[in-house]
From TrEMBL:
GO terms for biological process: chemotaxis. The gene is cheD. It catalyses: L-glutaminyl-[protein] + H2O = L-glutamyl-[protein] + NH4(+). InterPro entries: CheD-like_sf, Chemorcpt_Glu_NH3ase_CheD, Cytotoxic_necrot_fac-like_cat. The lineage of its organism: Bacteria, Bacillati, Bacillota, Clostridia, Eubacteriales. This is Probable chemoreceptor glutamine deamidase CheD. Pfam families: CheD (PF03975). Its EC number is 3.5.1.44. Belongs to the CheD family.
Length: 162
């Protein structure tokens, strides 16, 4: 069993026995894509909604943004033999950690990340199988590629599965 802990602005691809972990997920968003037939999947952990709003374009920043990180995740899965029509998604995160987030210059980044992920998945016709987004608390995510299950741990040691 191989486990991989993702940091912000990273993605991971794997299969069968792999487990992907994200700790202290706040306003960032995690999208898990999974091909059940191959037991192959991936996870992207990104912090910002839209690369087109970036002040500068830098290829090294591709994984910072929902749109470009998910494109990279999809490309990687297709290269591993996954098929677009078999993929489904789980979307996690996008919390509103600060009560005053709406008053910030960029607004509620968590909400924007959720909307960007949903929009990208809708454009690619990838169904969202499960979602745990929003609210005002952080999460820890475990994504098990053997089963496609995502286990979420939240405040007060509350655990649940998606």
């Amino acid at each position: 069993m191989n486990s991989c802990q993702l940091r912000p602005n990273h993605l991971a691809l794997g299969s069968h026995e792999d487990i992907f972990i994200v700790r202290a997920l706040g306003s960032g968003i995690v999208v898990c894509l999974y091909d059940e037939a191959l037991k192959t999947g991936g996870m992207a952990y990104t912090l910002f909604p839209d690369s087109r709003k970036a002040k500068e374009s830098n290829p090294e920043d591709r994984l910072k943004y929902v749109d470009t990180a998910l494109e990279a995740l999809l490309e990687g899965l297709l290269e591993k033999g996954a098929r677009l029509e078999r993929l489904w998604a789980k979307v996690i995160g996008g919390a509103k950690i600060f009560r005053f987030a709406d008053k910030l210059e960029n607004g509620d980044i968590g909400k924007q990340n959720i909307e960007a992920a949903r929009r990208w998945l809708r454009e690619k016709a990838i169904p969202i199988k499960a979602e745990d987004t929003g609210d005002s608390f952080g999460r820890t995510v475990y994504f098990y590629l053997k089963t496609g299950k995502a286990e979420i741990s939240a405040v007060n040691n509350y655990k649940y599965n998606l």
